[in-house]
Amino acid sequence: MTRHFAVSCLVVLTTLATGSTANASDSLHVSGFGTTGLLWLDTSDHFFNHPAKTRGRADRPDFDSDTRLGIQASMPLADRSGVTVQALFSGTHLRPFMPRISWAFVHHSPTPGLMLRAGRLRTPFFMNSDSMDVGFAHPWIRSPVEVYGLNPFDAMDGIDMLYTRRAGSVDLEFQPYIGHKAKHAFPDGRVELTRIAGARFSFAYDRFSAHLGYGRGKLSIRYGDPLFALVASQAGRDALSGSGAHAGFTSAGFEWVDGRFQLIGEYARRRVDRYITDADGWHLTGIYRMGAVSPYLTVARQRSVSDAAPRNPSISGIDAYLASRDNAQRSITLGARWDLHPNLALKGEWSRVRVGRNAWGAYFPRNATGATTPAGERIDMLSLSLDFVF
After folding, report:
1. 293 neighbors 337 (Cβ within 8 angstroms)
2. Which candidate in 41, 215, 256, 349 could, as Cys together with 198 as Cys, close a disulfide (CB 3.0–4.6 Å)?
């Protein structure tokens, strides 16, 4: 039903968007963004593995995890309609710099303050979902992985509505959405979310803004890694992966700016009834602007409140399997951003990470057998990036 409804809305919006072109501009607006990044770890036993984006290569330094290029094109189709397409070139879990279409939608504004969109859209699960890949828009090199690693689905095929209104001195925005499918691939499997529905609400008043969102859907996941094969041969594949799981995701965040000071905080919560962990994550970031240079400090944590499968001690390899599906960790990050130009920023940051005792966190063992895992380890990570927009 969700799929048929989304397709019907896409047809209607496309008809509205192309129905009147007499006063439309023929101009095509092209813009873009990018990041050239690299990172080092203080250990040769592991490498960085963003749970929701890409697994770094077993190289030192790692140039793939944070490097990306995005190109966006927008064109009006009528007075109140248009089309937007965005292509993103970045590292994925499958291979580095794999191009993909992250946005591709038509939009129509029947009245001021109301926009309807259909096509491939950002899933607004986080406070900064729309700009998550635009490094220049944020103080950090990468959004805190303890929060933004909780949900791998950054785009969906569906429809949404953007309703904005100013009430006195308060700016309000409401965004309900439904989606047919969102998917994400990793080296030894894939995960999909279908029958997606949710809403996001945000407001801004003076120097303060806040976000609240909730989304849900049906989750299916397929694994194919050696640890899965070992445990599945004893527990059964259906106990560890499959389809029909119920997933819910909640997030809340705020931003406060007062002259030179800026404070950003966000909390996210994931609840799934099987196959992956239930987990919570939060971060708090303080920024101090000194002209073109902005040092910042971030503290963050992700904790798991359930295992990805029952912990049966009679199953060989069960502890390693559950740890490899658990991204629990806490970190402190000290960094600085230097705005070299209105469209160019240089960043550097150092992170000290403590991986959960029974988790792998945002890291992966270099040894394919997992003989030396990141569980319980302290890891130092140094990152550099050059962010730009055009």
Report:
1. yes
2. 215
